[in-house]
Every structure is written in C-alpha cells, then in structure tokens.
Design brief:
This protein has 217 residues and is mostly helical. Among the domains are: 55-129; 145-217. Helices cover 82% and strands 0% of the residues. The protein has helices spanning 2-68, 73-89, 92-108, 112-123, 130-144, 150-160, 168-181, 185-196, 203-216. The model is unreliable at 4-8 (pLDDT under 50).
Length: 217
C-alpha cells in the first residue's frame, strides 16, 4: 500500500509539473533569453571598453612622445591641444593624467591661471584617483603660495600634511613658506628645523629645509 501511494504521489507531482510548464513555458523561455542577452551585452560592453582604453592609451603615449620634443611655444601648444582631446574623450584614468600633463605644459608656457584651473579640476574630482587628487592639490598650492588666499592655502596644505599622506613632507615645506609669507618667522623656523631632521622625508626636501633654515639665522 505504501508503494502504491508513493507512485500515485509521484504521478500527481509529475502532472502538476507538466501543467506549470505549459502555463509558464513562455515566461521561462523569455527569462532564459534575457539572461543570455544580458551576458552577451556585458561581454560586448567589456570588449568595447577595452578598445576604448587601448585607443586612449595610444593617444596618451603619442602626446607624451610629442611633449618630449616640445621646446618651442608652438610645440607646447600642440601638446596642450593633444592632451585636451584626451581630456574630452578618454576614460577617467587617462583623462586625469592628461589634465595633469596639460596643466604642467600650461604652467611652462606662462599660463598659470589655466594650469591652476586644471589642477583644481583634478583636486576636486571625486572620480579621480585619491593619490592624483592630492598631487593636483599640492601643485595648485605650490603655484599659489605667493599670491593665493592664505586661509585657503593653509586649509588645503594641512589636509595634505596629515600623517600617512605620501605628499606630507612637501606640504609641510609649503606650510613653512606660507608662514614666512605671513611674517610668522618663528613658526617657519620651527617647521623647517623639524622637516630637516625628518628621516622619512625625501633627501631633497630635507636639504632645502636645512638650507632655508640656515639662511633665516
């Protein structure tokens, strides 16, 4: 009797499965096709993204090669235009690098306002790599140290001078120069003396700090 009941129960389950399959066959097929289409679309998007990255990399390397031989104002402007094209069309990583390179070229050409705008653009771009954002912030401060708003400069530099930040020694150096600009000679001397003894700071930074501290007497 137990075997018969089991067989009847299995037949009932099979019959219910057939009825469900007939009722929802269209939906099941549609869902399967949707999954296949989504997988194909994802693969297609990755292929297209890889092609975009490769093309952007080639344009960036070409602009860098042109930059190596840019000795005249006209050639530097050509380099700036090439980097400008990358900024408009390339993915985020290359776009950030292109903005930094274009800013450097504009600074060399004497257009400090244009360079500062590009550095500030990178420094405030939440999509950019944090290390490059901080670098852009530091470069902006370095080129504003003589004329920029002291309060804004101090705020930006102190954020970079926090422990663990890779740009900390350079930010501390700029803070000391800002102190000198504002007539805070004692504070500048103390900061320079500390920086000159900081074994974690680059040799060049320590040497400049020691030399400037000696000149201050």
């Amino acid at each position: 009797m137990v075997d018969i009941f089991d067989e009847v129960e299995e037949e009932l389950r099979a019959e219910r499965a057939k009825q469900l399959l007939k009722r929802y066959a269209g939906l099941i097929i549609a869902a399967a096709l949707l999954i296949v289409a989504a997988a194909g679309g994802w693969q297609g998007w990755r292929w297209w993204q890889a092609r975009q990255d490769m093309a952007a990399g080639q344009r960036y390397l070409a602009a860098m090669a042109l930059m190596q031989g840019s000795a005249t104002a006209a050639s530097r402007q050509a380099v700036i235009r090439d980097f400008g094209a990358i900024i408009r069309t390339a993915p985020e990583g290359y776009r950030t690098l292109a903005r930094l390179q274009a800013a450097a070229q504009e600074a060399q050409s004497g257009d400090l306002q244009g360079a500062a705008a590009l550095w500030n653009d990178v420094a405030t771009d939440s999509d950019a790599d944090p290390l490059l954002r901080d670098l852009a912030n530091l470069l902006w401060c370095q080129h504003q140290i003589d004329t920029g708003d002291p309060g804004l400069l101090e705020a930006r530099l102190k954020a970079l001078a926090q422990p663990g930040n890779v740009w900390r020694p350079l930010a501390q150096e700029q803070l000391a120069l800002l102190d000198l600009r504002e007539g805070k000679t004692a504070a500048a001397k103390a900061a320079l003396s500390k920086l000159a003894r900081d074994v974690t700071a680059p040799t060049g930074v320590r040497g400049r700090a020691a030399a400037l501290r000696a000149r201050l007497g």
